[in-house]
UniProtKB/TrEMBL annotation:
The keyword Transmembrane applies. The keyword Cytoplasm does not apply. This is DUF3159 domain-containing protein. The chain crosses the membrane at residues 34-51, 57-75, 82-99, 111-140, 161-181, 187-210. It comes from the Bacteria.
Length: 246
């Protein structure tokens, strides 16, 4: 292999940055398991309702499977934040559906949450504090350093927030009209079908934007280095005082 064939340090750094970005996105958004836990309750609800048209049985089954998913994570001592958020979402859906007797209302809290989240992404991007940066900053150990010290990453986070906001708005533009005119079974299956693809598209675009951005500034490493330097300065000062003749 010639020197031209060997990967450069820049290429290696870029590859490492992409790998770190992939790992961070999986951690932040729950990965494959988190997606499954998001889809299963709604899928079970619409499947049971399609068969027996019973709102109560369908809702209780969806809530039960959500609780089982949380219990499995607790037993295995895994991260439970995504599973717990799913339980709360399903619980609100169950309450809505039980109160109104309308099976479509099982999905209404999640739809409202999606709309609110879409607006939050867009508003924070316009305000110069993109939400995706607030979410991923701690994951990358950069906290808010990207706001003032890393304009390339701030630009990437802004683009990603716009992508998330517009994709989620597009999803809402499909679901809310269907909520009013479609029958429950058709609406439920369309909603389940739209769970994963928009999410994957948003995650992919986020990965593209961040993979091309400058690497994050590890503020934790900086603080550790500063603490170490401070200890060395104190040690040197103490040594100088104990041996003044030196």
């Amino acid at each position: 292999m010639t020197s031209l064939d060997k990967p450069t340090t820049t290429d290696q750094d870029a590859q490492a940055s992409k790998e770190v970005t992939e790992a961070a996105l999986f951690e932040a958004f729950g990965g494959l398991r988190g997606m499954v836990e998001t889809v299963v309750p709604g899928l079970l609800f619409v499947t049971i309702f399609t068969i027996n048209k019973n709102v109560q049985i369908s809702a209780i089954a969806a809530l039960a499977v959500s609780l089982v998913l949380v219990a499995v994570r607790l037993i295995r001592r895994d991260t439970v934040k995504h599973a717990f958020s799913g339980v709360f979402g399903v619980a609100f859906g169950v309450v809505f559906a039980m109160m109104t007797g309308n099976a479509k209302d099982f999905y209404l809290p999640g739809m409202l949450y999606t709309l609110g989240l879409a607006l939050a992404y867009i508003v924070t991007a316009l305000a110069g504090v993109p939400l995706i940066g607030l979410i991923l900053g701690p994951v990358f150990k950069e906290n808010l350093s990207w706001r003032t010290r890393n304009p390339g990453r701030k630009k990437a986070y802004t683009k990603a927030s716009w992508a998330w906001g517009l994709i989620l708005l597009g999803k809402c533009a499909i679901l809310f009209p269907m909520y009013w005119w479609a029958d429950t079974t058709k609406f439920g299956w369309v909603l389940v079908a739209l769970k994963i693809p928009p999410f994957l598209l948003a995650v992919y675009l986020t990965w593209v934007f961040l993979a091309k951005a400058p690497p994050p500034i590890d503020v934790f490493a900086e603080m550790e280095a500063e603490e170490l330097a401070e200890k060395e300065r104190k040690a040197a000062a103490a040594a100088a005082q104990s041996h003044p003749e030196a």
